[in-house]
Specification:
The chain is an alpha+beta fold. It has three helices and seven strands, in the order ββββαβββαα. The longest helix is centred in the middle third of the chain and has 13 residues. Belongs to the Nudix hydrolase family.
Amino acid sequence: MEDIPTFLTVVALALFDSEGRILLQQRPAGKHHAGLWEFPGGKVEAGEFPRDALVREIEEELAIALDPQTLSPCHFAEDYGHTPIVLLLYTSRQAGVRPRGMDGQAWRWSLPAEAAALPLAPMDRALLNLLSDKAA
Ligand SMILES: Nc1nc2c([nH]c(=O)n2[C@@H]2O[C@H](COP(=O)(O)OP(=O)(O)OP(=O)(O)O)[C@@H](O)[C@H]2O)c(=O)[nH]1
């Protein structure tokens, strides 16, 4: 059997603030799905565990030192497009976070209803609906 994964694993974070808002970022120009809003995160690299990949991505993208102890596995989504992807969504309520867009990307805190009105990355609308009950 070939030692090649059949799908990409992507990890993403729904970070809640004390008002039940979620941190979203806009995919930068030049990337796949540029301009769409998403939960911060990215691809799990070979040899990495998902939550380590998430801590790395959040540091790289938003200069947030995420405490892994605050992470809870929450939902997953799948997209069987050209490159099949399984996205693992975690939540965190880590306090005192001050994001910086390290790729020059925009970011915002949004209530679930506000987030639903944004143009979202493909798998995110379903994930947002599942998250809405966790906002309060
Ligand atoms: N990070 C992230 N990716 C998402 C979300 N929803 C969703 O459909 N995706 C898709 O999952 C894939 C993740 O790739 P990515 O581009 O974020 O990963 P990465 O930062 O490691 O990519 P790179 O290779 O450009 O550095 C993209 O096709 C992206 O559009 C989401 O909420 N967060």
